[in-house]
Design goal:
By secondary structure, the chain is α/β, with parallel strands linked by helices. The protein has one domain: Class I glutamine amidotransferase (GATase) domain (Rossmann fold), CATH 3.40.50. It is 33% helix and 25% strand. The protein contains 8 helices and 9 strands. Strands 2-1-3-4-9-8-7-5-6 form a 9-stranded mixed beta sheet. Strand 8 and strand 9 form a beta hairpin. The longest helix has 19 residues. The radius of gyration is 16 Å and the shape is globular.
Length: 234
């Protein structure tokens, strides 16, 4: 099997738990470290799918690799290859497929509840998962749902939390988190946590009962990742 290409945009936002899932399922992957100036591949010949991780930049920033990633997303989606985006990655998918990315009404940082929507696409992707789930978030911008895609997750703080189209899944939330990643982000990005609010948690609140929160998150991630990997797993 050809590897999945995993695009990392900043060192602290790597594949996380997704890497553990891929290792467990013996699915090869190759990290393309944009933060270390790895070149964006010119085509899809060497991969079986694409994964885009998060980052503090905006998809609307004039960065040369953004346009290159957008073109790869469009090509992979057109070919029916699995495409997955987390936060910034989900925003890249939206923009590539004709959507828009702009400021969310509020910053959403920490553990917050999302809800399943009521449509066939949501049922296909989310199946037996509960109707309400606590997931991890860290974003100030959000995406629109492109034409021919369907919203599958929503929340009070961010109306569009995930959409799917064919074998493409775009997430505004972070289901790839591990406990060390949560602690690292709370430290590295601590200036964003100075004024806690209903949508921005303090580092202490974010890391309280962290093992239990991560266990619940990874059960959800297991389901989502296996569904997304279905074209490769057979």
């Amino acid at each position: 099997m050809k590897p999945l290409y995993i695009f990392r945009h900043i060192e602290c936002e790597g594949p996380g738990y997704l890497g553990e899932v891929l290792s467990r399922l013996a699915i090869p992957s190759h990290v393309i470290a944009i933060d270390r100036d790895d070149p964006v591949p010119a085509d899809l010949d060497g991969c079986s799918g694409l994964v885009f991780m998060g980052g503090p930049m905006s998809v609307n920033d004039p960065l040369p690799w953004i346009g290159q990633e957008l073109e790869l997303i469009r090509e992979a989606h057109a070919q029916g290859l699995p495409v997955l985006g987390h936060c910034l990655g989900g925003q890249l998918i939206s923009k590539a497929l004709g959507g828009n990315v702009g400021a969310n009404p509020v910053k959403e940082i920490g553990w917050h509840t999302v809800r399943k929507t009521h449509n066939k696409t949501a049922e296909d992707w989310l199946g037996e998962l509960p109707s309400r789930m606590e997931l991890f978030h860290w974003h100030g911008e959000t995406f629109s749902v492109p034409d021919h895609a369907e919203l599958i997750l929503e929340s009070d703080h961010c109306a569009r939390q995930a959409f799917a189209s064919g074998n493409t899944l775009a997430l505004q939330c972070h289901v790839e988190m591990t406990a060390p990643m949560v602690r690292e982000w709370a430290s590295l990005y601590r200036e964003e946590l100075g004024n806690p609010s209903p949508t921005v948690q303090s580092a202490e609140s974010m890391t309280e009962n962290l093992a239990g929160k991560i266990a619940g998150l990874q059960q959800i991630a297991d389901h989502l990742y296996r569904r997304w990997l279905r074209p490769l797993l057979g």
